[in-house]
Write a structure and sequence with these properties.
- This protein is elongated.
- A hairpin with a 5-residue loop joins strand 5 (547-551) and strand 6.
- Strands 6-5-4-3-7 form a 5-stranded antiparallel sheet. The protein has a 3-stranded antiparallel sheet with strand order 8-10-9. A two-stranded antiparallel sheet has the order 1-2.
- The chain contains 23 helices and 10 strands.
- It is an alpha+beta fold.
- The chain has helices spanning 5-9, 15-29, 31-45, 47-53, 59-98, 103-124, 126-133, 140-170, 176-203, 224-253, 258-281, 301-320, 324-350, 366-390, 395-398, 404-439, 449-483, 488-505, 507-521, 590-606, 608-611, 644-661, 678-702; strands at 352-356, 362-364, 530-533, 536-543, 547-551, 557-561, 569-570, 576-584, 614-626, 631-639.
C-alpha cells in the first residue's frame, strides 16, 4: 500500500534485505498498525490545542478552543465520505482476498448459531425453570434464594448464546480485519443480552424469562407497566451504546482519522439521546392522590418531562463540546441520588424483616440497614473516585503533599467517612430500639408482670433513643471538626465553660432533666398509666428530656415539666378499692340488704365481662352512719386500676333493681312543719327541698 521512491531507483536488494522489506510492508499493511500511525499523527497535530484546553482559560480562550473544536468537527464531516470510501475499499480487498462472506452476513450467521445454542439450553433447563417458578416466598431467605436462582438461570441463558456464537466463530481462522469486525459486533450483541438479563433480574416485567408471575421476583419495587417500559428502553440504550462503541473502535481499525471518528460518535450519540427522550416522555405516569402528593408531587408530569429533556440535551451538548468535567459532574449529580433511592427501595423490598408496627408497616432489620448503608457508602465512594479522576485529582497523592487546599480536601474526605460510619451505627441502634418497641405493641394481661415490663420498656426506650441520638450527633460533629484540622480540645473546654454558664442560666431546665431521670429510675409512672400531681392529672402519653405529656380524661393535654410534678399519685398500679354508699329507709332489714348485695357481688364475679378485672367482689361493710332521712350503707370492691367505674355503674344498677324487687325502699327526706301561716309552711318546704338538692349534687360530685 505504501511505496518508497528510493527502492525503485537504487540497486536491487539482496535476499535478506528483500525479506526485511517484505516484512515491513506487511506490517504497514496491517490495519491496526496503520490505525496507530494515523492516530499518532492526529495526536501530534492536536497536541497544542489539547494542551491549551487543559489549562485554565478565560471566556475568550474558551471561545477560541470551542471554535477550534468546531473547525475540526467540520473537517471531519467533510473528510468522512472519503475516509469511508477508503475504508470500504480496504474491507472489500480483504474480503476478496479471504474469499469469505461479508462481515454483516457472518455476524447474522453466528448470531443464529448463538440463538440455536440458547434454544437448546432453554429446552434442557425446563425442569430448572419449573422448579424456580414453584418456589414460595415464606421467608426472606426463600425470597433471596429464588431471585438468585433466577439470576443464575438468566446468566447461563446468555452464556449459552455467547458460547454458541463466539465458540462457533473461533473454530475457524479469519483474517485480522474480518475477525476484528465480527468479534466486535458479536461482543456488542452479548453485552445487549447481558443487559437485558440484568434488567429482567432487577425489574422482572410480567412474563420475562418465560416465568409465570415473574413480578414475584422483582427487586426494584415498581409497577408492571413501569417494569416493562424501562426493561425495554434501558436494554435498547445499552445495546445501542455497545454497538456505537464497537463501531467507533472499528473505524479506528479501518484507518479513520480522529475527526471523522468523532463525527460518527456524536451522530450515534444523537440516536442514544432520542432513545432517552422517548423513554422519558412515554414512561408510565404514576397517579398520586391529593393526600399523598409524593416527593415531587407539586411538579407536574409535563414539567418533569421537559426538565429531563433539557438535562439530556445539555449532557449531549457538553459531550460534543468536549466539556467532560461539567459532563461528569452533571451525570453524578443526577445519578447518585437516584441510585441511592433505588438501592434503599430495593433493599427494603428484598430484606423485609416481617415485623409490622401498629400501622401495618414493616420495619427494616439490622441486615437490611447494613446492606443499604453499605451499598450507599460504596456508591458515594465510587462517585468521589470518578470525580477525582475526571478532575485530575490524585487521591493517593493527597496524603503525600501538604497545602491548605489538600489539607481541607483530606479533612473533608475523612469527615465524610466518619459521618458515614456514625450514620451506619446510629441506624443499627435505631432499628434495634424500634424493633424492641415493636415487640411491645401487643398488650398482655392487665396487671401481670409481662404487662408491667412492657409498659416500662415503652417508657424508657424512647428516652434512651433521644439520648443516643444527641450523643451520636455530638460525637459526629466533634470527630468531623477534628478531621478538618480544628483543635477540638479548646472547643471542648470552651463548651464546658459555656455549659456551666448555661447551666446557671437554665437551672430550671437542668432541674427538669435531673428530676425526670430520678422519676424514671424510681419507676414512678409509665406510659399508659393514669397519674395525678397537684392540679394535673391524666394518662401518661409520652416523655421528653424535660417534661411529660398527660392526657386528661376529658381530652385536654398537659405538658408538665418534671420539676413541677412533686409528689405523684399513681392511680394505675396493682389494684384499686372503690367504695360506694346507698341510703335506705330506717325500717330497712339490714341483714336482708347484706345478702342481696353479696349475691350481686358473686354474680358480677362470675360474669365474663367483669371476671377478668375483679380482684375482690362487691360486699357490704355495714351501716356507715344514720342520716337525716335514712340508713347509709357502705360497700366496696377491688378491681384492676382504671376499670372500677364500669363495675361501679353495673353494681349500682343491679342494686337498685334488686332493692325494688325485694321491697327495700330508698330514703326520702321528710319535713314536719308546725304553725298556721301558709307562707311559713311554703318557706320551710322550699328550704328542705333546697337541702335535698344540695345533698344530691354533693353525692354526684363525689361519685
Amino acid at each position: 500500500m505504501f511505496s518508497s521512491p528510493g527502492f525503485a531507483q537504487g540497486p536491487a536488494p539482496d535476499p535478506e534485505q528483500a525479506e526485511k522489506i517484505q516484512r515491513f510492508l506487511d506490517l504497514v499493511d496491517d490495519p491496526q498498525v496503520r490505525s496507530w500511525l494515523l492516530s499518532a499523527k492526529t495526536t501530534t497535530d492536536a497536541a497544542a490545542p489539547e494542551a491549551v484546553a487543559n489549562e485554565p482559560v478565560s471566556y475568550a480562550g474558551f471561545v477560541t478552543i470551542f471554535r477550534a473544536r468546531a473547525t475540526r468537527l467540520l473537517e471531519g464531516l467533510r473528510a468522512f465520505p472519503s475516509e469511508a470510501a477508503r475504508a470500504a475499499a480496504v474491507l472489500e480487498g480483504e474480503v476478496d482476498a479471504s474469499h469469505s462472506a461479508r462481515p454483516i452476513f457472518l455476524v447474522l450467521a453466528f448470531v443464529a448459531a448463538g440463538l440455536a445454542a440458547q434454544w437448546c439450553f432453554w429446552w434442557l433447563s425446563r425442569g430448572w425453570r419449573a422448579w424456580i417458578a414453584s418456589l414460595r416466598f415464606l421467608t426472606v431467605r426463600d425470597k433471596l434464594m429464588a431471585i438468585s436462582a433466577r439470576l443464575l438461570w438468566g446468566t447461563c441463558y446468555v452464556v449459552a448464546f455467547a458460547l454458541g456464537s463466539l465458540g462457533f466463530f473461533l473454530a475457524f481462522d479469519w483474517l485480522p480485519l474480518v475477525r476484528e469486525i465480527v468479534v466486535g459486533y458479536l461482543f456488542a450483541v452479548v453485552i445487549f443480552r447481558l443487559a437485558r438479563v440484568a434488567f429482567d433480574f432487577l425489574l422482572a416485567p410480567p412474563g420475562s424469562g418465560g416465568f409465570a408471575s415473574a413480578e414475584r421476583f422483582r427487586v426494584v419495587p415498581v409497577s408492571d407497566q413501569a417494569a416493562t417500559h424501562w426493561t425495554k428502553r434501558l436494554g435498547y440504550m445499552v445495546g445501542w451504546y455497545a454497538f456505537g462503541s464497537v463501531t467507533v473502535h472499528l473505524l479506528a481499525t479501518l484507518g479513520f482519522a480522529d475527526p471523522p471518528r468523532q463525527v460518527a460518535a456524536y451522530t450515534l450519540g444523537i440516536v442514544l439521546l432520542f432513545l432517552g427522550i422517548e423513554a422519558v416522555w412515554n414512561r408510565p405516569t404514576v397517579h398520586l392522590s391529593s393526600t399523598q402528593p409524593g416527593r415531587f408531587g407539586w411538579i407536574g408530569v409535563r414539567a418533569r418531562n421537559w426538565f429531563w429533556t433539557v438535562y439530556l440535551v445539555t449532557l449531549w451538548l457538553l459531550w460534543v463540546a468536549g466539556a467532560m468535567k461539567p459532563f461528569w459532574i452533571a451525570v453524578v449529580a443526577a445519578a447518585l441520588p437516584g441510585a441511592i433511592a433505588l438501592v434503599r427501595a430495593s433493599v427494603d423490598n428484598l430484606l423485609q424483616g416481617g415485623l409490622a408496627d401498629a400501622e401495618g408497616q414493616n420495619r427494616p432489620g439490622v441486615i437490611s440497614v447494613m446492606v443499604e448503608r453499605g451499598v450507599r457508602a460504596v456508591l458515594i465512594v465510587g462517585a468521589i473516585v470518578l470525580l477525582a479522576d475526571v478532575l485530575d485529582i490524585e487521591l493517593t497523592g493527597i496524603t503525600a503533599q501538604d497545602s491548605a487546599a489538600l489539607r481541607l480536601m483530606r479533612g473533608a474526605l475523612s469527615a465524610g467517612i466518619i459521618l458515614l460510619a456514625i450514620d451506619l451505627v446510629w441506624n443499627i441502634v435505631k432499628v434495634l430500639i424500634d424493633r424492641k418497641l415493636g415487640e411491645t405493641e401487643s398488650a398482655h394481661e392487665v396487671g401481670s408482670e409481662r404487662e408491667r415490663r412492657r409498659a416500662r420498656i415503652r417508657t424508657l426506650l424512647p428516652i434512651l433513643k433521644n439520648v443516643l441520638m444527641i450523643l451520636f450527633v455530638a460525637v459526629a460533629i466533634m470527630m468531623a471538626l477534628s478531621s478538618l484540622g480544628v483543635e477540638i480540645a479548646p472547643l471542648i473546654a470552651g463548651a464546658g465553660v459555656v455549659g456551666v454558664a448555661i447551666g446557671f442560666g437554665a437551672q430550671t431546665v437542668v432541674k427538669d432533666i435531673i428530676s425526670g431521670m430520678f422519676y424514671l429510675l424510681d419507676d414512678a409512672f409509665r406510659v399508659g398509666e393514669y397519674i395525678q400531681s397537684g392540679s394535673y392529672k391524666g394518662t401518661v402519653e409520652s416523655f421528653s428530656l424535660r417534661s411529660v405529656k398527660l392526657r386528661h380524661h376529658r381530652g385536654a393535654i398537659y405538658i408538665v415539666p418534671f420539676s413541677e410534678l412533686g409528689a405523684v399519685q399513681n392511680l394505675s398500679r396493682d389494684w384499686v378499692i372503690e367504695k360506694l354508699t346507698v341510703t335506705v329507709g330506717f325500717d330497712t332489714d339490714v341483714d336482708k340488704a347484706r345478702k342481696i348485695i353479696k349475691k350481686i357481688g358473686q354474680e358480677l364475679l362470675v360474669d365474663p365481662e367483669f371476671a377478668a378485672i375483679t380482684i375482690e367482689p362487691l360486699k357490704m361493710q355495714g351501716i356507715d352512719s344514720l342520716g337525716d332521712s335514712g340508713l347509709i350503707l357502705r360497700m366496696k370492691f377491688t378491681t384492676v386500676p382504671g376499670e372500677q367505674f364500669m363495675l361501679k355503674r353495673r353494681a349500682l344498677m343491679l342494686i337498685n333493681k334488686a332493692f325494688h324487687e325485694n321491697g327495700i325502699k330508698p330514703a326520702f327526706p321528710t319535713v314536719q312543719v308546725a304553725g298556721d301561716r301558709g307562707t311559713d309552711v311554703a318557706a320551710a318546704a322550699q328550704q328542705a327541698l333546697a337541702k335535698h338538692n344540695e345533698a344530691i349534687a354533693a353525692a354526684a360530685a363525689s361519685g
